Amino acid sequence: MKHSYLNNDRVRLRAVEPEDLGVLYEIENDPSLWDISNFTVPYSRYVLRQYIENTQCDVFADKQLRLMIVRKEDDCVVGTIDITDYMPLHARGELGLAIRKEYQGKSYAGDALTLLCEYAFDYLSFEQLYAFIAADNVPCVKLFRSHGFLESGFLKNWIQMEGGFKDVILFQKLRG
User: How far apart are CA 111 and CA 70, in angstroms?
Assistant: First the structure.
């Protein structure tokens, strides 16, 4: 029987659609999520619309892949999961994950992480995925540990946030 990637009994991961503009605008402009990114300014609806129109939704062409995390019971978008900084020569990419506030703590992040890892390793033939997680983001640190990511480094004062700098843990997961 053929394996069904990007789906489980609770969620599915799908490409970004034009109707996702409002959700992307909400997520990209939420300052509480900026500690996991390199954002310095908010994104406009115009820029996000251009992104949606121009992405090929192909990690090999775009060198990144953004997928929407959709709850199956009602087709509600609960968050996004991304592979960025894809390096074909090294078969690796950086993983990013954002769950909308009202859906946090309901295991959607774990579902999405499992599905994306299966897809990246088993279908796309990635050798590794990595993520930079703020050391004080305890739920996220626990999530990545519980999904087989290993701590590969600790970066002092790596990201600047309101009120000072934060330490970051580098997590890696290798194929197999």
Answer: 11
Distance CA 54, CA 52 (A): 6
Sheet containing strand 11-15, edge to edge, reads 11-15, 65-71, 76-87, 92-99, 128-134, 164-174, 150-161
Q: For the purposes of burial, counting CB atoms within 10 Å of the CB of 32, is it exposed (0-12), middle (13-18) or buried (19 or more)? A: exposed
Selection from 51, 1, 4 nearest residue 25 by Cα: 51
pLDDT in tens, 134-143: 999 999 999 9
User: What are 129's two structure tokens?
Assistant: 């995925």
**Residue 47 C-beta-side C-alpha neighbours within 13 Å:** 8
The residues spanned by each domain of the chain are 11-129
Q: How many CA atoms lie within 13 A of 146 on its CB side?
A: 12
What's the pLDDT tens digit per position in 156-166? 999 887 788 99
Q: Per CATH, which fold does 11-129 belong to?
A: Aminopeptidase (3.40.630)
